[in-house]
């Protein structure tokens, strides 16, 4: 008989081994799925995980693209992880990402055609502010009226999407675009562009910001009193209160930081890889970042690796999709398996698997 | 913006003919690898499905001499640029990008791969010699639908589910309304904007809203079968049309006819030109005559005389003896657009941002 026994404290070994195990299990289950679809599973897995990094034909292009795709994921996920650690659930990063892009692009376009190098930094500030502001709505509602921040932040995503559509069709529409929805292409306006800083590396300001934030979050969690309060609130809320942590303040802080970082990610994306505000500007980074945060164990370094891994499955998935004619739904299912297995094997962190009947204690 | 549509007004003026000779290839290719980039899933039953049928027709036509690859559900923007680059790197000779929103990515990637041909559906930018554009004159099909709608409505209220307020859609609304009005002066048109190309739930809501207003004939400019599914719940009181694809599952009613996008002739022609060395940069805008726009079977739910008239209308458009926008036509505000006997210049159509006289409501902005 197999049974589970709760560990006195979470296993340090399994905490780090479960993501690896989840990836391995995903490869096995995904391979079976690909085989059932009539594809060679080994070739499919190789195309997803190996070719973007080492295939001669693609790698020179795909490797830098990993950073482009991982940058916003990491930036958002680090912010979310702080709240998640403290038991504050910001599920609406997608909306904050949209609002950051709108605020940032809005400031830039309002100044058009001013050509000074101060435009871009201003846009970054506006983007951060936009994301922060959008996150403050659920934060204030929670602290004042005790509403559920999960629901409010999630529903605000849909509000943000409608504002985005309205901006694309109205206020921010390119006046020289012949009436078509979408703003001017910020990437083509030097003062507003967030370009690739070193050609062929994929590095843009957003990627640099992501790395800086990873380091800052790591230091904060290890050394700063706020990091201690966050961790304490998650692990022992009562003890945290005795230690003088104000839950209200923590909600505002964590929601604010995660909103600001999501807003920054949106701004860097709209000024860089995406280039313009359009009705379908958001492609789900805010939601995928939730997976990345958990895959990375809510740890900044873990999130860095998880973000890169997630980006790899996207880019490799695209390759597999057209090289092997895999349906895109199969790639999405493959990515879904990753989270599924992670949550499943996470059990091992907190529980020990025991074989045999429970011994009676005399 | 999700996908396709539109060549732009000014930019498209005078470009609606094949631009000759600029980059004729010296000789054909032995084998062609053709890539197709789709904005939706192949199984959408509409827009993307039809493009994929075109891709399969290419394979069918040339067998071993072509290899086709495709990718579905490609978001517009940064992701599209990466997918296009990877396709070009994988050795594609020609890449078809089948949605309006791929316009900038297509031109950006085309600059980096001058030896690869890029074909962008419904756009207007041809920044490089290796970028061609193609679209279809869907407004011709809308004329036929309008005729049927005007004859079939009992409440004198007809509806149109708009996707985005852009010239291609407005062109369709105007054509639909003009031809309904022509056979039924009492007809009133309601337009509902869904702001999506493909979202079955939103499309169904739009259809419900129209039905609640008393509309009994619905045309849609979105891609799913949801509006027909809503009409089917009314026990024959409300009819509609297949959009992009035939949507034959809803025959004979509520689906009484359809506009079928047939991209196969164009795809076969372009890949063939690459094989035999006659490929040239192009800006194609074909309609019923060129086979790109097909009118799906008009079912028995439509009386025989109406069917005969609709088919005659279709044939006169195909023969070039009738243009769906023939004056006198005024704009919504009463100002003159086309004089008696004058037909609409392509440039006017491609930049059309106004309703014709008689349509109530405003184009959202």
TrEMBL record, chain A:
Q: Which InterPro entries match?
A: ABC_transp_permease
TM region positions: 12-37, 66-84, 96-112, 118-141, 150-172, 202-221, 250-271, 277-296, 303-324, 330-349
Q: What is its main location?
A: membrane
Which keywords fit this entry according to its UniProt record? Answer: Cell membrane, Membrane, Transmembrane, Transmembrane helix
* Protein localization: Cell membrane
What CDD domains does the database record attribute to this sequence?
A: TM_PBP1_transp_TpRbsC_like
Q: Which domain of life is it from?
A: Bacteria
Say yes or no: keyword Cell membrane present. yes
Question: Does the keyword Transmembrane feature in the UniProt annotation?
Answer: yes
- Topological type in the membrane: Multi-pass membrane protein
Q: What is this protein called?
A: ABC transporter permease
Organism encoding this protein: Paragemmobacter amnigenus
TrEMBL record, chain B:
Does the keyword Plastid belong to this entry? no
Q: Which sequence ranges form a coiled-coil region, renumbered to this chain? A: none
InterPro entries, A to Z: ABC-Purine-Binding, Peripla_BP_I, PnrA-like
**Domain ABC transporter substrate-binding protein PnrA-like, chain residue ranges per copy:** 31-315
Q: Which PANTHER family match?
A: ABC TRANSPORTER SUBSTRATE-BINDING PROTEIN (PTHR43208:SF1)
Q: What is this protein called?
A: BMP family ABC transporter substrate-binding protein
> What are the record keywords, sorted?
Signal
């Amino acid at each position: 008989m197999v049974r589970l026994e709760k560990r006195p404290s979470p296993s340090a070994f399994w905490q780090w081994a479960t993501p690896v195990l989840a990836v391995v299990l995903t490869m096995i289950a995904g391979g079976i799925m690909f085989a059932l679809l009539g594809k060679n599973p080994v070739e499919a897995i190789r195309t997803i995980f190996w070719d973007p990094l080492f295939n001669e034909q693609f790698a020179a292009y795909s490797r830098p693209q990993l950073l482009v795709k991982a940058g916003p994921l990491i930036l958002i996920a680090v912010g979310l992880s702080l709240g998640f650690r403290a038991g504050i659930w910001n599920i609406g990063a997608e909306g904050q990402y949209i609002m950051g892009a709108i605020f940032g692009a809005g400031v830039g376009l309002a100044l058009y055609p001013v050509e000074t190098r101060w435009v871009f930094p201003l846009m970054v500030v506006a983007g951060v502010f936009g994301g922060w502001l959008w996150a403050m709505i659920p934060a204030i509602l929670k602290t004042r009226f005790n509403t559920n921040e999960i629901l409010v932040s999630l529903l605000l995503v849909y509000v943000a999407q409608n504002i985005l559509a309205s901006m694309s069709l109205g206020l921010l529409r390119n006046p020289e675009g012949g009436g078509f929805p979408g703003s001017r292409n910020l990437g083509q306006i030097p003062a507003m562009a967030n370009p690739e800083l070193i050609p062929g590396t994929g590095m843009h300001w957003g990627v640099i910001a992501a790395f800086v934030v990873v380091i800052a979050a790591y230091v904060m969690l290890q050394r700063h009193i706020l990091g201690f309060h966050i961790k304490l609130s998650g692990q022992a809320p009562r003890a945290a209160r005795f230690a003088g942590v104000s839950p209200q303040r923590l909600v505002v802080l964590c929601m604010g930081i995660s909103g600001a970082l999501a807003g920054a990610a949106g701004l860097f994306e709209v000024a860089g890889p995406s280039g313009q505000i359009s009705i379908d500007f958001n492609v789900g980074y805010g939601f995928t970042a939730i997976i990345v945060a958990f895959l990375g164990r809510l740890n900044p370094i873990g999130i860095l690796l998880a973000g890169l891994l997630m980006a790899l499955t996207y880019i490799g998935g695209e390759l597999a999709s057209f090289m092997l004619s895999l349906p895109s739904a199969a790639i999405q299912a493959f990515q879904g398996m990753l989270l599924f297995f992670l949550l499943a094997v996470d059990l091992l962190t907190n529980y020990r698997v025991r074989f045999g009947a429970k011994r009676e204690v005399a | 913006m999700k996908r396709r549509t539109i060549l732009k007004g000014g930019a498209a003026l005078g470009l609606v003919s094949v631009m000759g000779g600029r980059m004729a290839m010296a000789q054909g290719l032995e084998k062609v690898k053709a890539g197709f980039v789709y904005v939706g899933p192949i199984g959408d039953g509409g827009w993307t499905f039809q493009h994929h049928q075109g891709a399969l027709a290419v394979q069918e036509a040339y067998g071993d001499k072509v290899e086709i690859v495709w990718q579905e559900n490609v978001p517009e923007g940064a992701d599209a640029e990466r997918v296009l680059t990877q396709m070009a790197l994988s050795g594609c000779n020609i890449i078809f990008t089948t949605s309006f929103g791929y316009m900038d990515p297509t031109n950006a990637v085309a600059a980096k791969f001058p030896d690869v041909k890029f074909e962008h559906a419904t756009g207007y930018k041809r920044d490089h010699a290796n970028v061609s554009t193609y679209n279809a004159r869907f407004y011709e099909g809308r004329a036929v639908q309008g005729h049927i709608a005007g004859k079939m409505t009992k409440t004198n209220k007809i509806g149109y589910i708009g996707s985005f307020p852009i010239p291609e859609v407005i062109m369709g609304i105007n054509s639909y309304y003009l031809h309904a009005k022509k056979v039924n002066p009492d007809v009133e048109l309601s337009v509902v904007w869904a702001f999506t190309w493909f979202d079955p739930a939103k499309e169904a809501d739009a259809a419900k809203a129209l039905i609640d207003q008393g509309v009994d004939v619905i045309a849609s400019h979105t891609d799913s079968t949801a509006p027909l599914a809503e009409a089917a719940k009314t026990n024959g009181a409300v009819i509609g049309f297949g959009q992009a694809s035939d949507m034959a599952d809803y025959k004979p009613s509520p689906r009484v006819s359809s506009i079928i996008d047939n991209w196969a002739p164009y795809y076969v022609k372009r890949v063939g030109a690459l094989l035999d060395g006659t490929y040239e940069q192009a800006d194609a805008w074909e309609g019923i005559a060129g086979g790109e726009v097909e009118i799906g079977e008009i079912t028995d739910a439509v009386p025989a005389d109406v069917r005969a008239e609709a088919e005659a209308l279709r044939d006169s458009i195909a023969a070039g003896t009738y243009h769906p926008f023939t004056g006198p036509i005024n704009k919504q505000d009463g100002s003159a657009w086309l004089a008696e006997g004058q037909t609409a210049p392509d440039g006017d159509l491609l930049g059309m941002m106004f309703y014709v006289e008689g349509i109530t409501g405003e184009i959202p902005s």
